[in-house]
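re: ur question from yesterday

yeah so i grabbed the chain u mentioned. its 173 aa long if i counted rite. heres the sequnce exactly as i have it in my notes:
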Amino acid sequence: MIYVALLHSIVLGGGRRVIMADLRAMAEGLGFRNCRTLVSTGNLVFEAEESPAGDIERVLEEAFEQRFGRHVDFIVRSSDDWLKLAAKNPFPNGNGADVCLRVMRAPLDGSAVGLLEKYRDRETIAIVDGDLWVDFGGKPSESRLLSVMTTKKLGIGTFRNANTVNGIAEMLR
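ran it thru and got these structure tokens back, copy pasting raw so excuse formatting
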């Protein structure tokens, strides 16, 4: 089965970042096959025996901490789930760099929209199958929403822009 694993952060501290070749090598060392990455932000595609996403997340997180000396969350989806996720982008006509997806470990519910509405300005938000899509309508880095879209407030998740979401989908096709 093919999986997508998203690293929450490639920053290791002390000015160090995870090199994608090292991430692929770590995954290969776990027995995963055909390991590929997209851009340098921690997007890993690989083949493995069919397992629950949570089990794969735990294996990756433990191996990552052992290899790189720091815990970082991983979010894992099957290829079928990723392709469905990419196809359900509620903002397909938005700028691919300004439309972002926060892929969640545990699905968000409608209460998250209420929290985010207080900080929303030009942005449009939608929760689709428990994941958060945001059309920032401009540079995401200039949005007040970023300060509330944290693990502490929303739960474990990680952002990817629509260009990356679509790029991963292309890798899977």
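noticed a couple things. The beta strands are 2-7, 11-13, 16-17, 33-38, 43-47, 74-78, 99-104, 124-128, 131-135, 157-161. also The chain has six helices and ten strands.
anyway ttyl
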